[in-house]
Structure formats: C-alpha cells, structure tokens
C-alpha cells in the first residue's frame, strides 16, 4: 500500500454529517447504521432497501430514524449517501438516488470492487455532487440486517478510492466518518485496490467455494461422508464458502481481469508444489511452509487478523450493536 496515505484512527463521537442515508441494509449497511448511531456520527439516519423484509427488520431493530422502500426518499436532503448494495446493483441504486441528491451531497458506497463501481456511479452522479467510493475491508460470511454489528469496522482497514480531482473536503468527510467507526483509513487508486483485493480477498473466496464443491462432488461419488467427517483444517479453511452467492457472483464478474490474473499466478504456484510433491522435493515444501508460517503469524501479530470476525469485538462495546 505504498502509494497511499494511512490515517490511523480512533473511534470518535460527534456528528460528522447531519443526515446520513444508507441504501441497502444488509450486513454492511446495518453495521454502518449501528456504528454511526453508537458513536453519534450522524444527527439522523435514513434507510432504504429494495427488500420489504430487510426494511421491516431494520425498523424492528431500530437501526434508523426514517425508512423508505424508495432510495430517493431516503436520499432526499442527505449529506452523505452510502450505497450498501451488491456490486452488480450499484448502477441501479445510484440512478435511483441521483435525482434526490442535493448539491454538495456526498455519494459513497462500500462495494468490494472499486473500478467497476466508479464506472457505474460516475455517469449517474449529478454535477455538484461529490462521488467518493470506499471499501471497508471487514465482514463476515453472514448477510442481512440481523447479521450486522457496531464494532465490525473497528481496527480494520477502510480503503477510500477518490476519483481524480475529487473534492478534498468530501474525501476528508468520508475518511472521518470511517475513522469515527474505528476503521483505519487509506486512500488508493481503484485499480490498485482491485489488484490487491483480488489476491487477499477474492481469490481465497474462490478457492474456498471450489474446495467445498470438490469435497461435495467426491462425497457423491464415494458415499464416504467427506463433509460429515471434515477435519479442522477443512472447517477453518472454508468458513467463507458460506458467504452470500449474489455478492460473490458480482465481485468475480466485476473484478474479472485482476481475479483471472491471480488465478493464473496461483495455478503456476500450485503446479510447482505438485511437482515438488511428485519428485519428493521436501526442501521446496519445507522452505515455502516456513516462509508462509512466518507471514501468517505476522498478520495475526499486526492485529489485522481477518479469519474470525466474531473474535470478541461483537461483545466489547455496550449499547447498539
Ligand atoms: N459481506 C461482507 O463481508 C462485505 C464486506 C465489505 C464490503 N461488502 C460489500 O458491501 C455490499 C453489501 O454487502 P452485504 O454483505 O451487506 O450484503 P447483504 O446481502 O447483507 O445486503 C445487501 C442489501 O442490499 C439490498 N439491495 C440490493 N439491491 C438493492 C437496490 N437496488 N436498492 C436497494 N437495496 C438493494 C438487499 O435487499 C440487501 O438487503 C456489497 O457491495 C459487498 O461487496 C461486503
Ligand atoms: O471475513 C469474511 O467473512 C470476509 O469475507 C470479509 C471480506 C474479506 O475477504 O476479508 C470479504 C469481502 C469484503 O469485501 C471485505 C472483507
């Protein structure tokens, strides 16, 4: 992340914006609502969702101050509108809010792919409205309004990808908003974001989905109860294969080039390992495993552990969430 500006942040109370609108109140949208409420980052929160069920759940949970099925209703008068919908739905959500956006409003999102989202949102962003996309690198394998929690973003990265020439004050507002929820904010180009996330997030999900599929197919062929007797390694490795199919279909289709590049590299490295196993080349295996063990342990030591989203953070803050 060398071309970026890191801003280590502490959760802060006090309004960053007057009116916040959240479009899509699933895992991420509901977590933003909870965190914004908990730390008083907005004076009022309006929520919209295409699903009547999700909207009713948000209302039951008391996540906002105003609820609407029409995104434009929620976005009306908002200072900051955050689209928390699947990457493939960003253009539709952006077009839906666009006519309601007031001059000077900030349009942002939380999509896991940034190049495509910028391309979808730029054409529908009205003149005088500031487009500042962002991506909280935090989540779980669960989805829907009930799955969210206020501390989801604490001590996690939020990558902000402002378009060239973006208004610095708008970028600062979005950064302060995410810092206020406890995230560490970096700015980065969308291209760099998509390349980095292709290997750190997208490829692992693809591999997890694939290995569960392989094991399930094997089970059908051998009737050997592969899944029933799956060992700890399989379970640790495949938690993320329970993630939302719509979200991940969209991520792979919208970050196609970077993901294909990473699959190519991964296949080459896997072929090298297969060769080492075939030829009994223990040194190659041992050297790689020693190196990767140190890297993996370093990730945990740095506090950027990401494999267990529930590791106490859900319970360490009282109040909403
Ligand atoms: N889940 C994660 O771990 C994670 C982490 C970081 C970022 N993200 C990104 O956040 C976004 C939301 O993911 P999520 O996990 O909260 O998904 P989710 O499935 O929990 O929630 C998405 C919500 O958006 C609503 N929606 C879909 N299309 C809509 C539209 N056109 N207008 C209004 N509402 C609409 C759905 O009804 C649903 O309630 C995605 O872009 C995803 O890539 C997800
Ligand atoms: O921990 C998980 O369940 C996640 O998959 C979270 C995760 C990730 O890969 O780190 C998934 C996608 C998002 O864009 C950001 C975070």
Automatic annotation (TrEMBL):
Residues 18-307 form the Prephenate/arogenate dehydrogenase domain. SUPFAM superfamilies: 6-phosphogluconate dehydrogenase C-terminal domain-like, NAD(P)-binding Rossmann-fold domains. This is Prephenate/arogenate dehydrogenase family protein. The keyword Kinase does not apply. Keywords: Oxidoreductase. Coiled coil: none annotated. Transmembrane segments: none annotated.
């Amino acid at each position: 992340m060398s071309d970026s500006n890191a801003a280590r942040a502490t959760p802060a109370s006090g309004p960053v914006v007057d009116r916040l609108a959240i479009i899509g109140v699933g895992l991420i949208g509901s977590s933003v609502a909870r965190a914004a409420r908990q730390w008083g980052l907005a004076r009022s929160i309006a929520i919209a969702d295409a699903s009547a069920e999700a909207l009713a759940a948000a209302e039951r949970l008391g996540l906002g101050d105003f609820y609407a099925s029409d995104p434009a209703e929620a976005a009306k008068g908002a200072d900051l509108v955050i689209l928390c919908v699947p990457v493939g739905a960003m253009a539709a959500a952006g077009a839906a809010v666009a006519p309601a956006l007031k001059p000077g409003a900030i349009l942002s999102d939380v999509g896991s792919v940034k190049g495509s989202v910028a391309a979808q949102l730029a054409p529908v962003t009205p003149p005088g409205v500031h487009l500042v996309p962002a991506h909280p690198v935090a989540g779980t394998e669960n989805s829907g309004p009930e799955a969210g929690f206020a501390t989801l973003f604490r001590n996690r990265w939020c990558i902000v990808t402002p378009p060239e020439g973006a208004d610095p004050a708008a970028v600062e507002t979005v950064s302060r908003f995410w810092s206020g929820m406890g995230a560490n904010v970096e700015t980065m180009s969308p291209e760099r974001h998509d390349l980095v996330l292709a290997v750190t997030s997208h490829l692992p999900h693809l591999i997890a989905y694939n290995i569960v599929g392989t094991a399930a197919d094997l089970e059908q062929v051998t009737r050997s109860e592969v899944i029933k007797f799956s060992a700890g390694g399989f379970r640790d490795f495949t938690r993320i294969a329970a993630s939302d199919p719509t979200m991940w279909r969209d991520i792979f289709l919208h970050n196609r080039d970077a993901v294909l590049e990473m699959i190519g590299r991964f296949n080459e490295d896997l072929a090298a390992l297969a060769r080492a196993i075939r030829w009994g080349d223990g040194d190659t295996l041992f050297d790689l495993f020693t190196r990767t063990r140190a890297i993996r342990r370093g990730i945990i030591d740095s506090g950027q552990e990401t494999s267990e989203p529930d590791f106490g953070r859900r319970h360490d803050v009282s109040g909403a969430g």
